[in-house]
Write a structure and sequence with these properties.
9 helices, 459 residues, 22% helix, elongated, transmembrane, 14-stranded mixed beta sheet, ten-stranded mixed beta sheet, alpha+beta, YycH/YycI_2
């Protein structure tokens, strides 16, 4: 028995070694199929309506100056406006210089010279303006942005100049242009000739602009229609953005999101870092992302606005028609960027408890920290009613008769739609927005009273 024990051990050992080789070969030739884990990214909501920066930065209006204190105005629903905006891509500007004007020269350009004034609702960064037109030369200026681009013809030099104006900063610069007198007179001014006549209003009292020597601040003015106009009152149904769509759009991993009910009945969705607060009574939301990385390189204003546009493009999209309104510093020195909703040529103004007029972003070093927007989106057109809109003289007379304000304190006036949210519908009511110096804006129904009394004008 003992003589068979050693050979048996040898055979068993050989079998074990052979089995070990076989198992090793199997493991070597049959690697497991690894699944690579992609870095976490926001999930884009579907469908998403994306926009480019150039689509969001558009002029508020175009004013045509004919001399003899005659002016007309076109807005985005008018053919002359579309023609000018299309032509802007062909405009070339060169030889930029800081510039000042005397009161006398200001009055001459504004009231007597042929020109075209492209007006923005508020200050637009110069680098963004450079996307709409062509800057052939670099500009050396401390101006951050402009609210107007004014083309005018200088007869003595036979040149069309451009003024880049910022009323907020009190700065301007002038440049030569590629535009000829024929372009200005026979094309641009000719197309605006049939637009509604306007009354130019200088923001400061006229006595401050008497002819005198020396440079003066940038003139700020606005325009009011001489005669009554037409505008539609609309009613739309609306859709409400669902919680599921919000979670899909704003969180990295929707499976990690939990819901919290606050004592005031506000609902918060959070993944432990980012959060969405829903204000059900307002049908609005605020997204917060406190985590950010400070960037060593200072961002330009254009990069900041572009970053806000890109963020909205990837997170829920625009839903309705929005345009860039302004960028300013918040109380804590963060960048506050606002986009406003429009119907046709007119901005929406919300005063009630369900605001649906703006998307507001607060960013720091280019990183979005908060975003506030409405959960309501205009859906189907339901009905409309045509209104006769009061003229500028009628509006001023109404303000005086009702003692609503001192008209000398008015800094701007424009038409808009005031929103009124009902059960399943939104009414858009035409109003005049009257901006005042150092006091709250006035919102006045734009409807003209038929058979009203004599209008004394804007003096």
């Amino acid at each position: 028995m003992k003589r068979w024990l050693e050979p048996a051990k040898t055979v068993l050992l050989n079998l074990l070694v052979l089995a070990s080789f076989c198992l090793t070969a199997m493991l070597w030739s049959n690697q497991p199929k690894f699944q690579f884990i992609e870095p976490a990214q926001y999930t884009e909501s579907k469908p998403v309506q994306e926009k480019q920066l150039e689509q969001l930065v558009t002029p508020e209006s175009v004013v045509f100056h004919y001399g003899g204190d005659r002016h007309t105005k076109a807005v985005s629903t008018d053919g002359p406006y579309s023609m000018i905006v299309k032509e802007m891509s062909k405009w070339i500007f060169l030889d930029f210089t800081p510039y000042t004007l005397s009161n006398e020269k200001w009055g001459e350009i504004a009231r007597e010279k042929m020109g075209v004034e492209v007006r923005f609702r508020s200050s637009v960064p110069l680098s963004v303006v450079g996307r709409l037109v062509t800057f052939r030369d670099d500009y050396d200026t401390k101006m951050k942005g402009i609210d107007r681009l004014w083309l005018y013809y200088e007869k003595d030099e036979d040149l069309v100049y451009a003024l880049f104006l910022s009323a907020d900063e009190g700065e301007m610069m002038r440049s030569r242009t590629s535009i000829s007198l024929k372009d200005l007179r026979d094309s641009y001014l000719a197309t605006g000739n049939q637009m509604p006549e306007q009354i130019m209003k200088i923001v400061k009292p006229e006595r401050a602009y008497s002819a005198m020597d020396g440079a003066t601040p940038v003139w700020s003015m606005f325009y009011l229609p001489k005669n009554q106009g037409r505008m539609q009152q609309y009613r739309y149904s609306y859709e409400t953005v669902s919680n599921e769509r919000l979670i899909e759009a704003y969180f990295l991993d929707p499976s990690l999101v939990r819901q919290i009910m606050e004592r005031d009945k506000a609902v918060i969705f959070t993944d432990g870092s980012r959060s969405i607060q829903l204000r059900s009574e307002e049908q609005a939301m605020t997204f917060t992302d406190p985590a950010y990385q400070q960037r060593a390189q200072e961002l330009s204003d254009e990069e900041k606005v572009q970053g806000a546009v890109t963020f909205i493009n990837k997170h829920l999209g625009w839903l309705d028609d929005y345009h860039f309104e302004r960028m300013k510093k918040s109380y804590n020195e963060k960048d506050l960027i606002t986009f406003r909703q429009y119907i046709g040529a007119y901005p929406l103004i919300s005063q009630g408890d369900k605001p649906l007029d703006t998307i507001q972003i607060t960013s720091e070093a280019g990183q979005v920290v908060t975003l506030s927007r409405s959960l309501l989106s205009l859906d189907k057109y339901l009905s409309n009613k045509e209104w006769t809109v009061m003229s500028g003289p009628e509006l001023y007379q109404l303000i005086r008769d009702k003692k609503l304000a001192n008209t000398d304190s008015i800094t701007d006036v424009y038409l808009a739609y005031q929103t009124k949210v009902g059960e399943g519908y939104v009414d858009l009511m035409p109003i005049w927005v009257v901006e005042m110096a150092n006091q709250a804006d006035l919102y006045i129904s734009a409807e003209a009273k038929q058979g009203g009394g004599k209008v004394h004008g804007l003096e």
